[in-house]
Amino acid sequence: MSGETMIEAAPAKINLALHVTGQRADGYHLLDSIVAFAGHGDRLTFSAAERDSFNLGGRFGPLLSAEAEGKDGNLIVKARDLLRQALEAGGQAAGPVAITLEKNLPVASGIGGGSADAAATLRGLLRFWGGTLSSDTLSTTGLKLGADVPMCLESRPLRARGIGEQIDRLDTMPRFPLVLANPLKAVSTPDIFRRLTHKDHPPIGTLPRSAAPSEWLAFLSRLRNDLEPPARALLPEIAEISDQLRDVGARLVRMSGSGATCFGIFDDVEAASAAAGELARRRPDWYVQASETQGG
After folding, report:
1. Has 116 been labeled as part of a binding site?
2. Beta-strand (E) ranges in the chain?
3. How far, in Å, CA of 172 to CA of 170, rounded?
4. Do the Cβ atoms of 92 and 84 come closer than 8 Å?
5. The pTM is what?
6. Rg of the Cα trace of the chain?
7. Which residues belong to any copy of the GHMP kinase C-terminal domain (predicted)?
8. Is 111 annotated as a binding residue?
9. What CATH number corresponds to the domain at position 183?
């Protein structure tokens, strides 16, 4: 067991585009999604301890139970236990650990949340325990925790297909300055999928070959998030957020995941920062965060 304290970032996951392309017999929906990860997110800390523990902090920590009764907490504890089982099955030690989650992202907001935290737990504890697992085993372990966890394990630009487990890295994707905005109202993912009228949309198609931001922005502008129309019907504030992001100068506005977080892409970091400041002034009751995605 390590005697150090280690920190692992859990960056926000941004679905720059999300097409629903089918549905499996077991009910899982098939997706084709362009995904990036922001420079802002939750943070996990791992420390040596006499017995396992899990604690919460951060702006949105009070919304989750310190006893891991909340969804995110449950996933972190499950990730810890699954990784421990995998390591111990191979004769590797995985002693007690104190885990603290600094919850900076809104809960149930369409930008990773519990999946990002679970993935960060797997990455962080693997380092903390000094363990070794194949990337396939780690990805399979992540998939047991949720369809989004394998892509959050990557935390780099990617295209995700299937139920989210078929991943292709996008090495040419540029960085995008953006603003995230959420009305701090949850929207039910199962309800959104139930409201989908079409579940067999065409896949995204051929991606840009260059790293030119203008080419990528033009490409993304032709795409969509198929979950946005039903989400807007359930939560009218999503339309208001989109309008406000356009009003403060966003080049492209779209909802991420199943919402209700929307993002606006800006020309540069300074423009995104200024827009976030203006939006936060207009709507202090919203979550507003300027950030930048990680490049390929």
Report:
1. yes
2. 6-23, 29-48, 53-57, 97-102, 158-162, 166-169, 177-182, 252-255, 262-265, 287-292
3. 6
4. no
5. 0.93
6. 19
7. 222-280
8. yes
9. 3.30.70.890
